[in-house]
Amino acid sequence: MRLAHIDERLVIKGPEGYIDVAEASGGRFGPDPQTALADWEAFSSWTREYLASSRAAQAPVVAADAGAVWGPPVPRPAQIFAVGLNYRDHIAESNLEVPAEPAVFTKFRTSLTGHEAAVALPDGLVDWEAELVVVIGRDCHRATRETAWSYVAGLSVGQDLSERRLQLTGPAPQFSLGKSHPGFAPVGPELVSTDEFDDPDDLELGCRLEGGEVLQKSRTSAMVFDVPELVTRLSAVCPLLPGDLIFTGTPAGVGGTRTPPKFLAPGDVLVTWIEGVGTLRSPMTAS
Ligand code: ZN
Hints:
By secondary structure, this protein is α+β, with helices and mostly antiparallel strands. It is built from eight helices and 17 strands. Strands 1, 2, 3, 4, 5, 6, 9, 10, 12 and 15 form a ten-stranded mixed beta sheet that branches.
């Protein structure tokens, strides 16, 4: 199942296009996308049944053209976790050691935005980080590796945009703040349920500038701590809640470690993709 958030309403992908969930479900789910995450199991089985019925083929289609406003698939997660240094080639380009524990920080919720949303670049050095985003589907405390995927609702495409000057300032670097300017957490366009993947632990991901070079390209199988390990280790400390997001780290190719360094500029359009999940487009503007 593929879920999106268009013009402030929850939609699912049907045979002909996006379908408004509140209308299709008679108000049982939607229009707020959080209602799907609040009871993911019931929402998933309703969706399966609905999409298999003749009603789905006859439902009116929601316009997803240039005028549509895409919100983040989960607009108000209770918690957003992010993991640094989780791909060996990125750790090497950063001249750091492979950590014994995941390096965890948060992206504050006001940094969330959606597909096609303009990001106003603040003063400083703004860098890209293509990342797989995991969306939690049910209460999860002390998961094991074996059960970890069962707590995941689905996957989305994200960018962990980072202002490097603030991020690396001071004796204890400011990861959370430097990565939380408004628009610094674009996620979308869709949330794709885990049953859509043959192997959700091995997906190509990357990003490029529109009309320009590929900046990053790797596979999620190259993570130091894979998704089951992240869910296990995070939930050993914090109970994870339905709708929580985990930004799972970025591979090599960020701008700050290049010679010479390269950062985002107004007019750049950052295009981020993950195999089977989607393509997220993020235009940069002056602030
Ligand atoms: Zn990151």
